[in-house]
Amino acid sequence: MPNTPADAPLDDHSFAAWAAARAGERLLEVRAEGLQGRELKDAGDRAAQDLLAALLAEHRSGDAVLSEEAEDDTARLDARRVWIIDPLDGTREFSEPPREDWAVHVALWEGGELTAGAVAQPALGEVAGTADVAPAPERAPGPPRLAVSRSRPPAITDDLVAALGAELVPMGSAGIKVLAVVRGVVDAYVHAGGQYEWDSAAPVAVARAAGLHTSRIDGSPLIYNQPNPLLPDLIVCRPELTEQILAVTTRP
């Protein structure tokens, strides 16, 4: 986990990783307080939001923020730099210790593009960020492995299994699924069940830095800092699988 100096790192890549790690540390503290169920979920959301808001206010005071856990300030639409954050991605998984498949997302949108981002996996003490993420490793032999939700896999999953002979690998939050593609644990993550910008911004930034394909399921670009932050679908996959996956997801 990155060091936590008194002052935040100066460059945006390092700041994203540092802030995500700090929020992750705070979430581990909350998880150790003995709360359960809804109380634990709510306490985690509040604690991570409060910490990230404070860090951004102190160290990136001139930037706008879009967060799942804060009221949307539409002034961000005229801002040059916007931090898109999900203080606790995978609240359900967080509330079920000792599960590890939950995350913290911190991304920077700048002038129309995602320019920096980090996804912390606090229960493992790991952070993947745009500063130093390694290229995705070579694909393992065998059928494509597809990350899916443990409880709500999208209907398009059946089509992908039929067309690609894919193996399904259930796991938790959106960030964790994307990191699984980055790390070569799976080969693709295809989602079509509804998400928002904060669900995918940081993971997508990291995936792009690792050389992976990212798009919507119709092949169009993922566009951030929109008036309506709904961004309901995405594909993150190894480049060599892009054509095969799009052939299924764009089928009439």
From TrEMBL:
The keyword Oxidoreductase does not apply. Keywords: Magnesium, Metal-binding. It catalyses: adenosine 3',5'-bisphosphate + H2O = AMP + phosphate. InterPro entries: CysQ/Inositol_MonoPase, Inositol_monoP_metal-BS, Inositol_monophosphatase-like. It comes from the Bacteria. Its cofactor is Mg(2+). Mg(2+) binds at E68, D86, L88, D89, D199. The keyword Magnesium applies. One of its GO terms (biological process) is 3'-phosphoadenosine 5'-phosphosulfate metabolic process. GO terms for molecular function: 3'(2'),5'-bisphosphate nucleotidase activity; metal ion binding. Gene3D superfamilies: 3.40.190.80, Fructose-1,6-Bisphosphatase, subunit A, domain 1. This is 3'(2'),5-bisphosphonucleoside 3'(2')-phosphohydrolase. It comes from Aeromicrobium terrae.
